[in-house]
Amino acid sequence: MSVTAIFILLLSNCNGKHTHKGFDNKTKDFVNDSIKNRKSIDSQMALADRPDSEQVGPSFKEVLADHLVSYNKVENIDKVVIDGNDTLQLHETYYCLHDSSLIVPKHYLWGGDTSKDFVTNNFATKIIVVNNKDTVLKKVFNKSEFNNTLFEEERKYAIIFNAGYVGYNKKKEEFALGYSITIPLTDVGVTAYITVDKKGNYKILDEYAKLDSYKK
Question: Is the dihedral of CA 195, 201, 202, 203 positive or negative?
């Protein structure tokens, strides 16, 4: 299964459980950005049982190495939007918590050493929204914030795999940001969204329609 196919799977459903309606080119842009930002889960998941030397794409060791490198990456998003008399500033920082508190059971791993569980870290995203000179939102979002959009296996073992900026909707007066919530080294996960309005009110959604109304 290709990386693109994996993210399309996440956008459509998770084992037939999640349904996302109304996705368009903006969603495709978010998916493409996600793929670029975090190279791959693995482009050859269908070949997982074959030796690394026989696989056509990144091996399990390479994917694992890429995941481990992500622990030291910090990704920032900064946007400024003029909406009427208001100047809105959005700052987001996506980062690893280095907590070693997430244990993925060995039976979830599609390759590599399946004799033991995989111990990894959780990730978080900090969102700050300033309306003119007033900070209307300053909050760290952990995976637990997305629990209402997740099923039990995702609540237990998934991480905030990546974060992306969708855009700003002037009619709704709110920003939208997109996330992939995925179990590390697997294709099990979903997409979710955070919207934040001019007053700092936020919502967490498991689907978001008409994303073409958001301007990057």
Answer: negative
Distance between CA atoms of residues 9 and 16, nearest Å: 9
- pLDDT value at position 63? 79
Distances (CA, A) of 61 to 30, 39, 55, 100, 117: 27, 14, 12, 20, 16
Given pLDDT bands bounded at 50, 70 and 90, which one contains residue 3? very low
Report pLDDT digits (tens) over 103-116: 999 888 877 667 88
Give, in degrees to the nearest 5, the angle at Cα 153 between 128 and 184. 65
Tell me the CATH class for 3-213.
mainly beta
Of the candidates 132, 97, 127, the residue with the CA atom closest to the CA atom of residue 196: 127
Q: Report which secondary-structure segment, H or E, holds 176.
A: strand 174-182
